[in-house]
Amino acid sequence: MSDHPTDHATKMTWVPEASCGMARAGHLHTRHGTVPTPTFMPVGTVGTVKGMTMDAVRSTGAGIVLGNTYHLMLRPTADRVQKLGGLHRMMDWPGPILTDSGGFQVMSLGALRKLDEDGVTFRSHIDGSKHRLTPEISTDIQFKLDATITMAFDECPALPATPEVLRKSMEMSMRWAARSREAFVAREGYGQFGIVQGGTERDLREYSTKALTDIGFEGYAIGGLAVGEGQELMFSTLDFTTPMLPQDKARYLMGVGTPDDLLGAVMRGVDMFDCVMPSRAGRTARAYTERGTINLRNARFADDTRTLTPHDDTPVAGRYSRAYLHHLFRANEMLGPMLLTWHNLAYYQRLMRQIRAAIVDGTLDTLAVKLREDWAKGDWTEDEWPMPDLAL
């Protein structure tokens, strides 16, 4: 990429609208459109949100999706995606796309990868072929994909880990962040996010934040959480990490999480999220609802003529009974995972809209209490159900 300009004066901006406690509502302005925040990004790892057409993704209200460098470099390859017009055109998503740098996936390969100061050599989980990722290569791949938001290449150590292991990993990630920034091609409305590392250690997170802000990025991600440390420790780490981050830039918590994780993180100042949970749950018969999680494989749903929820705003609402969805999963029909994925992603987007509206209204604390009380109640009883069922 040496023949490309390296001026970093891009015009991707995050503009605040309102706050409620530490929670923030705003707008992320990009080359491919404006995204209201807080926002949840459906995961489209290999150029598709599993089981969903992009029309279906759009219908949920999603404003930005995620792709992945590691998977797309293996197939169909970054060069092929570029020849096909870039990821936006290839997957029918003209809106913003954020691409994970591939660092997390490569670090998860264990014995299949070898780490050094320059980068990582690894073997494909698909066919065993040998590949190399460095900050420069990762950034170049994301350029070829035409990612609206490019992520800096980093190492994400598994937790728990000793402070010394976390320190060495974080310091190398900061050196890689500087190299990623140098390789980034500035284009109007495009941006690059640095990734704060340091495990659950306050001093390491502080060092990492200062190193990244000294480099200067269009946004800042919080990495290295949701990797086994538990919600309480994740929240306590966010309590001291988010206040360190610039007030005028978007904040992205990577790989999180459950509805309660999202709510708690927003209340600690996070603006952007991604997670495979809603789509993965949809493929395994689990529906997220205002009354907690419902497992549609359960035999009690075989004759249940109610819809999943009285609040569903997808085509699932009013058209498909719990009994029918139960049947689809018992019969291993692909329509079951498709409909439930649609439902779950729509629920996540509806939740984010609720949270955002409460931030603007200054009522987030009240909403949080109600959401958590309702999640704890469990599924609606027949007496509580406010709608007619679908029985003829």
Automatic annotation (TrEMBL):
Sequence ranges assigned to domain tRNA-guanine(15) transglycosylase-like in this UniProt record: 21-375
Enzyme's top EC category: transferase
Annotated GO biological process: tRNA queuosine(34) biosynthetic process
Catalytic activity: 7-aminomethyl-7-carbaguanine + guanosine(34) in tRNA = 7-aminomethyl-7-carbaguanosine(34) in tRNA + guanine
Listed pathway(s): tRNA modification; tRNA-queuosine biosynthesis
Matching InterPro entries: ArchSynthase1/Queuine_TRR (IPR050076), TGT (IPR004803), TGT-like_sf (IPR036511), tRNA_ribo_trans-like (IPR002616)
Protein name per its UniProtKB record: Queuine tRNA-ribosyltransferase
Source species of the chain: Gluconobacter roseus NBRC 3990
Gene symbol of the encoding locus: tgt
